[in-house]
Amino acid sequence: MYIIPAIDILNKRVVRLREGDYEQVTEYDVTLEEMIEKYKSHGTDFIHIIDLNGAKNDFSNQQYLFDVIRKTDMKVQYGGGIRSIEKVKELIDAGVHRVIVGTQAITNPSFLPELSKEVCGKDKCSDQVIVAIDVLDEVIKYSGWMESSPIKLMDYVDRCLQLGFFRFLCTDINKDGKLAGAGIDLYQKLLDHSPFIKLIASGGISSMKDIEDLSKIKVESVVVGKAIYEGRINIDEIKNWNLKSLISI
């Protein structure tokens, strides 16, 4: 299992939200460029960037983020406000390693079928595209977690699998931004339902103990944000864990 550091951007600032609430935001006195360089200098080659403005259909951050991404040789997992097939193509062409799709995949029934056909094909969808599933008490949320979907969680997973999408980023909203531990029960339910999916866990990670607990249930990787900024997990611990993970593959 691999640890992927998260960088959330709101109004071009590095931030973290609590439970996805834009009114409960913590800003950090560091730039996106500085965070990327810090991770790179400590041997991390994979980062997770979310445009929180984009998640609310405000695209004022996008050009800034694209410019930063183009300048780095790190592998970037990118999400927030991706509403079209053309935008997915643009991001892949710009060098984004994995594109995260969420709201559009839920609200537009034709989006994922078109994406599977036009962009990746069934053999590559899990490598280039990640389907975000943001969950609050097993209800799927979207549009920056402000709206609820009537689609049942496992039904949605099955639909994605049928289209060739196997990698999912699942955020347990109940846990997110609280440093209260990972949503082990939610991730276990998903893996029990579909043991072969590539699951990326997100939300609530507070310590290396949480990382160890997630590794036991065989999630593919875990996104960690606030625990790093708050000093609960340091970059050397991430580096050492990831090195051991690579060696064990």
Overview of this structure, please?
With 249 residues, the chain is an alpha/beta fold. The protein has one domain (2-248): Aldolase class I (TIM Barrel), CATH 3.20.20. The protein is 38% helix and 28% strand. Strands 1-4-5-6-7-10-11-12 form an eight-stranded parallel barrel, surrounded by six helices. A hairpin with a 2-residue loop joins strand 7 (129-136) and strand 8 (139-142). The mean pLDDT is 88.
Secondary structure blueprint with pairings:
Layout: E1 2-10, E2 13-18, E3 21-27, H1 32-41, E4 46-51, H2 62-71, E5 75-79, H3 85-93, E6 98-101, H4 103-107, H5 111-120, H6 125-128, E7 129-136, E8 139-142, E9 147-152, H7 153-162, E10 167-172, H8 184-193, E11 198-202, H9 208-216, E12 221-224, H10 226-229, H11 235-248
Parallel strand pairs: 1-4, 1-12, 4-5, 5-6, 6-7, 7-10, 10-11, 11-12
Antiparallel strand pairs: 1-2, 2-3, 7-8, 8-9
